[in-house]
Amino acid sequence: MSRFLRNLSFILPIVLLSAGLCTAQEAAVKAGKYDNGKMWTFDYPPTEFISETYGFTPDNGWFEKARLGSLRLPNCTASFVSPHGLVMTNHHCGRGSVAQVAMDGEDLLNDGFVSSSLDEERAVPGLYVDQLVAIQDVTDEVFAAVEDAETDAEKASARQEAIAAITNRITDAAGGADAGFVAQVINLYNGGRYSAYTFRRYSDVRLVMAPELQLGYFGGDTDNFTYPRYALDMTYFRVYENDEPFEPEYFFQWSKEGASLGDAVFVIGNPGSTLRLETMAQLEWRRDVQEKAIVDLLNSRIGSLMSYYEDNPSPALLNQIFGLRNAQKLYTGRVKGLNDMVIMAKRADTERQFLSDMDAKFANMDADVQVPYLTVINDLANIVEQKREFAAEFAAFIAMQPGGNLSSATLGRASVGRAYLNQKDAGATAEQLQPYVDQMSSMTQDPTIDKLFLANRLADFKASFGDDDPIVQGIMKGMSPAEVAESITSNSVFSDAAKLMEAMENDGIPADDPALGVANMIADRLQAFQSAFAGLGAQETELNAQHGRARFEIYGTERPPDATFSLRIADGVVSPYEYNGTEAPPFTTFFGLYNRYHAHMASEDGAEWVLPERWLNPPATFDMSTKLNLVSTNDIIGGNSGSPLLNKDLEVVGLIFDGNIESLPSAFIYQTEVARAVSVDVRGMREALDEIYDVDRIVLELDEGVLVATEAEADARQN
């Protein structure tokens, strides 16, 4: 046995047992070559893979058009879809912009927005899109900056300084931010490689068209992460330069035929974050502690908000609940995936293969040659074991930062107030104390929600630490979480920012304030947890980089890195899948949209499937058999929203907007059996624009590349 395997042999039985490999059938599960995904980077374009898999060989021009036609929004992906700067993305990506440009008396979210002329396109303050114009490998420069650093803190500091210097240098070389250029250093393979990306930033972006919320989010939270779907999740902007429509060199023409079953399709977008390079020990931490704690947090807070919403409905609160429910589905799906025996068996086999390949690569090296990542799997497992010692604290204190939207403002103010008093006693000046005052006064929260969230937090303490814990006993004193929360919020100056400021100006904060008492009781344990976790996190970051570098050493660019909200190419095919004992179709149509509406309107709770007036009375020429949504096997995740779905000729056949429920474990593994990306079909978008919204000038621009200023000009041209 080589020294590499000797160093790691003790952990393999633990990994395999904890992954559930307890039968011959489970042990026979083998990892696929691309279980870690197919989110290819433009640094290392997959020319050979595409040629071998799909029978055509893309050249440099193909990849250049794919890169420059795609755009990155601050939160999503978009793309140029006309030679006149028309930009396509999802409705849920542009929803904030739609609300932002609404004028007095308008409800553009619910009513939709259609500009009938160029003059009516509305500028969105602060909105920008970034186009990736250059890529430079800066790995050696970053590695050189940290090679002499000894501690994890020194390495992190040296790395940050090097990245900042690279970013500034490349931004300046491109012309600077004032000229519309920004640079970003992207880490790939968890820091195993580094690339400097130069973006051209377009800051004059105007809203052109957005459907009603009921179409963009048809089916609401209930249909979210499901399929079959019937959503028109699209929005259109336009980039302007010098107050004229920008004319990009590269854009994606709309396909007239769309995609067919089995067609190769490509997603060009910015997937947010995946965790496929994490070790088994790290995944098991997520399964047993982290993701489980997040789900518990979301369940309790959503329950509290729903109970409040029943008597105090408001659009803002409903949007908050929708956002949390989206996260709830996401993390529940992750937990389910992490408890799936086959998925975990595949991940274990991936790790086993990596250990074997590592051993083969370094088996004959000289004994005195030092390889920093030789024992990285073992080292990461040791870090996880230390993290597990704080599992109770992790669950009890999760999302408890002062001012957080899932925590009590009363407890948040009290935590800051404790620090304020400590600094004051230590002789801090009024100027030094002012940031604490500002932070406490800025925390706002509805008093009822504050009380509910405080009760939730106290329940977290009980569940995590147990009834016999001294902290729990000291806080609860035999009462329920709700009773204690009621008592604290009724008797603490921290329960109201104005009351707190008044107390500080007059008699000061009472030493026996009940909220301050809770903050004092948890302070030592919270600080110990935060300090230990920060140290372990720094070590884990460095080890993750070593792990990524090791994988790159062995596999090179034949296996793509994890997602990092950087531009990727994801290949796939249009494909149905089996679910619930039947088969999900590759395409849905407008017939299904109306069937969904009529079926749910027979019930008392069909609000998520209500159709706006113009959709209830479509013109006779509207073809309900037109394909509306489709599914494909492309590798996507959050951040890919708004990505164009393209055929091999780089024509738009769809617009990515979601994944199905079976795709939620995609954070950890890429699978094609039932996981699917969900897109709006180009044919459905065209039919809606032409027949329902009657924006002929936009259809003309998308189909023929012709820009006209008004609808009247478009009508005249068609006639």
Task: Provide a count of the helices.
Answer: 28
Structural class: alpha+beta
Structural Rg: 28 Å
Ranges where pLDDT stays below 50 over 5 or more residues in a row are: 1-21
Instruction: Please tell me what the overall shape is.
Output: globular
The count of DSSP E runs of length 2 or more, i.e. the number of strands, is 21
Task: Give the gist of this structure.
The chain is an alpha+beta fold. The protein has 28 helices and 21 strands. The strands form four sheets. An eight-stranded antiparallel β-sheet has the order 1-14-13-19-20-21-18-17. Strands 2, 3, 4, 5, 6, 10, 11 and 12 form an eight-stranded antiparallel β-sheet that branches.
Explain how this protein is built.
The chain is α+β, with helices and mostly antiparallel strands and 719 residues long. It has a domain at 393-533. Helix content is 49%, strand content 14%. The chain has 28 helices and 21 strands. An 8-stranded antiparallel sheet has the order 1-14-13-19-20-21-18-17. Helix 12 runs antiparallel to helix 19 and helix 17 (409-425) runs antiparallel to helix 18 (430-442). Residues 1-21 have low confidence and may be disordered.
